[in-house]
Design goal:
single chain, alpha+beta, 2 domains, 5-stranded antiparallel β-sheet
């Protein structure tokens, strides 16, 4: 009897997705957590990581949570006002543990996966901010995320006594002028008070998924990652109808013509009253996809 052929890996490099059964369970838990009264940011981030990187098992997810707990345990007990908190967390994470960002992080998928960021001590601003928030929150800090245009940072304190820090730069405390320059560099517009409103956990998750999609869109061979990010975003309680269009297009791109056409037609029905032009375009694309079956 000849030995069985080894399992074939896709032609693209890792990370590879988990088996279908594992993926289905992760998505069920992701949807349940996203719809809970108080969504757990770190748990949602780790489920995204497990959906993208099939090597992340339950033990690995638990280990990541334990590491966040252990880091929080190294912070001084109630160091003081918001500035003292910001400096203490920066010394621990950016200083003693070397968490920071580099320009090359924007080219790496791992920079958007929490378990990889914890291992590498490198990541995108938003994932480094998640580490800052989750460690500081566990230690009792008044901490939250701030979704500045083009650059995510963390805030300590309240609107009347706020201190911002930039985890991408090792936790550097930002002056008012620093923050204005960050916004001006990203948008060319002045800083608006609305830009400093604390970001809700699901807003952070949506932004992380958008980053993953942006990475995959620049690499057509990784349409599997783009499709995963779209389908996870569709599990969030509040989601734009446009996601159905995006999913349909990705399914067609990946050769699932019938399923992709059905999704495009479903999107066309959703927008038929409010956007006839978009409806017509989606129906034409669905028709073209079905024609590829002939």
């Amino acid at each position: 009897m000849e030995p069985p052929e080894p399992a074939r890996r896709p032609a693209f490099p890792p990370p590879y997705p988990p088996p279908p059964e594992r993926s289905a369970e992760l998505r069920r838990r992701f949807a349940e957590e996203a719809r809970s009264q108080w969504p757990d940011l770190s748990a949602l981030c780790l489920m995204i990581g497990a959906e993208v990187d099939g090597t992340l098992d339950e033990a690995g997810m638990d280990a990541a949570q334990i590491e966040l707990d252990e880091l929080a345990g190294r912070l001084p007990y109630r160091p003081g006002e918001p500035l003292a908190w910001a400096r203490a967390v920066g010394r621990l994470l950016g200083g003693a543990n070397g968490f920071c960002g580099t320009a090359g992080e924007y080219e790496r998928l791992e920079s958007s996966l929490l378990h990889s960021v914890l291992r590498r001590r490198r990541g995108l601003p938003i994932l480094l901010s998640v580490v800052w928030m989750e460690v500081a929150r566990r230690a009792g800090a008044p901490v939250y995320g701030v979704a500045l245009p083009g650059h995510f940072v963390v805030g300590f304190g309240t609107a009347g006594d706020r201190v911002l820090a930039d985890p991408f730069e090792g936790g550097r405390v930002l002056s008012g002028m620093d923050t204005e320059l960050l916004v001006a560099g990203a948008t060319g517009a002045p800083l608006e008070p609305s830009m400093l409103v604390p970001a809700a956990p699901l807003q952070i998750i949506q932004r992380i998924l958008n980053n993953i999609r942006a990475w995959a869109t620049a690499r057509p061979e990784r349409s599997d990652v783009a499709l995963c990010a779209v389908e996870l975003a569709m599990l969030l309680p509040s989601r734009p109808a446009r996601l159905r269009y995006d999913r349909g297009r990705l399914l067609v791109q990946r050769g699932a013509f019938t399923e992709g056409a059905a999704e495009l037609e479903a999107y066309a029905e959703l927008v038929s009253v409010v956007d006839p032009t978009a409806e017509e375009k989606a129906r034409a694309q669905a028709h073209a996809a079905r024609a590829l079956l002939n």
